[in-house]
Amino acid sequence: RRLADAADVADVRRLAMRRAPRMVFDYVDGAAEGERSMARAVEAFGRVEFSPRVLRDVAEAPTAVEILGRRIGMPVVLGPTGFTRMMHREGERAVARAAERAGIPYTLSTMGTTSAKDVAAAAPGGWNWFQLYVVRDRARNLETLALARDAGMDVLVVTVDVPVAGARLRDVRHGLTIPPSLHWRSVLQAMLRPAWWFDFLTSEPLRFATVDGAPDDLAGITNLMFDPSVTISDLEWIRAAWQGPLLVKGVQRVDDAKELADVGVDGLVVSNHGGRQLDRSPAPLELLPHVVNAVGDRTEVFLDGGVRSGADVAAAVALGAKACFVGRAYLYGLMAGGEPGVTRVLDLLHAELVRTLQLLGAAGVAELSPDLVRLR
Ligand code: FNR
């Protein structure tokens, strides 16, 4: 019932803080180094100024849009997040089911803790996507892609902003290990959250579904496994191994966006990984119009980072995004209450989006345009 009382995503975040051990919450809530990228991504949405039209018929304000040739319920994609079963025992399954119910895509991460097959079985009617991190072992990448394809996943998101791990200082300070191991601090934190602790001890052991790394700190696994020598020419063999749409996530410059559009990717995700990689990188919302202007006629442009409300989604779509990826918003819901928690967040985003459209004088997402929004 607490979930039902949550009036916005910030309320859900506060619930998450009370349910999850501090080091788990901070793994989600934190970002790299001084956390300025994350703060600026959110702050850019705070500078949105809407310019509403009045006396329009907004009795109906449909939110459905078409992306990559398919209709979805609203312009929101649940982005890939690693180690999702740490947040709640149902993990990726709960998120995929909530996305299925909302009619929006869910992206399973290479660093996921549930296999592609199990995600597909949990949400057979959902539009399940897969996110690839290129690992050093090339054969392994092909096996991973085959598992995703065999599970019916047809959209591939290649994340390109992790040549090496970013420095997540909250995790360093907590001594967070993957999976969480028992030392005095983690035991103490877990004991303050007995429900989470009980779930953790009674559910299947936490481990990655597709990568194996000696359990250690996340940065250590990342730097051991990921290939930092990947270039744009690697998209060739990835493209050859994948039949469906291919998106590149982590674009932070207009010239890179142009190069990617030139090689014919189906979509770009303007993203700085939620501020978890290079700190002090551009705020995605500020960069978005420049990328849309440069390549929006050739490829679908998505925004990722800092989305905390349906009004944020409306602003990003008005500025040219096909849809927004969200990360933390749904993870707060997952930590606050499993699948119902994720559903609560998606319901909030949808209700906020509809209300914003109506107050803006836009009779649906299709009527959003750049003249309705400026950044102060
Ligand atoms: C992420 N993100 C991420 N991205 C990715 O491509 N692969 C991954 O495995 C992960 N893992 C991950 C874990 C956690 C806990 C978070 C919070 C984020 C980044 C994610 O997809 C997305 O880019 C950001 O979360 C977007 O920013 P917001 O919505 O969290 O502000």
UniProtKB/TrEMBL annotation:
What is a single molecular function from GO for this protein?
oxidoreductase activity
Q: Which cofactor is recorded for it?
A: FMN
Pfam families per record:
FMN_dh
Q: Which keywords has UniProt assigned to this entry? A: Flavoprotein, FMN, Oxidoreductase
Give the EC number(s) under which this enzyme is classified. Answer: 1.-.-.-
Residue ranges of the FMN hydroxy acid dehydrogenase domain? 1-376
Q: Which InterPro entries match?
A: Aldolase_TIM (IPR013785), Alpha-hydoxy_acid_DH_FMN (IPR012133), FMN-dep_DH (IPR000262), FMN_HAD (IPR037396), FMN_hydac_DH_AS (IPR008259)
Report the family membership. Answer: Belongs to the FMN-dependent alpha-hydroxy acid dehydrogenase family.
What's the protein called, per UniProt? Alpha-hydroxy acid oxidase
